[in-house]
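Appendix C reproduces, verbatim, an entry submitted by the partner laboratory led by Prof. M.T., so that reviewers can inspect both the input and the predicted structure.
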Amino acid sequence: MFEIFKIGFLSVSFIDVIDVFVVAFILYKLYTILRGTIAAQIFLGLMIIMLFRFSAEAVQLKALTWLLRLVTDIWVIAFIILFQPEIRRLLVLLARNPIIKMFGKAEVPEAAEIITEAAFELSQRQYGALIIIVRETGIRGYAETGEILNAKVNKSLLTSIFFPKSPLHDGAVIIKGNMIEAARCTLPLSPTTEVEEESLGMRHRAGLGISEQADVISVIVSEETGSISVAEYGKLESGLSKDSLREKLKNAFKAPTKKGWKNLFEQIKKEK
């Protein structure tokens, strides 16, 4: 192994330099994503303790090394537990990377047109609806909170589900491909309660919440106004026309846009 220089007993090779730069780059990127949140402060504290630990190991302070190793091990576990939502969003961010998507096949389902027609009809009748369209990564855990259907998507079935007196109208319908996986599903609520000075109801918060945590697009029909909204990348867009909704759904399975990446980063940086 080629040695570049030596500091006392410590020998530094070319591979060591590359290793240090790669680790420093990864840590820097993680810090920039978390910067401005409580997680960033804890992450910085963890890095300082790890630096002390490596220094203690280098000079062979065994007792101090043992103590710092114990602290860092506990701190890493606590960090994962406390900031599980942020970590999950980072994993979603990686899954949406266009390079990774090259290894998967994303097709626009035939259901896009059916969902558009159903949402428009529900809007005209002012029937509240929440339709979750799954991209590549499933959300089976949320689907299992409702009634499993595994039925082919069709307009009549969707409008029947969200009929106010239907036993399945409360909650969300989850669609993957051309199949309705489940209905009456319970979803996580977004901490956002207001968008552009307008209060969000439970249906809109649920549609927004699942888009913050999973690779999905949410179609929301307001029961009060009949307005159609779409939640994607943790952002809510309201007042969509039939044509704009159709275009949104057709583009739902394409690679993330620059706007989508920006919205997702903003969502990760948002302080809890």
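The two ends are 47 Å apart (CA to CA). Additional entries are available on request from the coordinating office.
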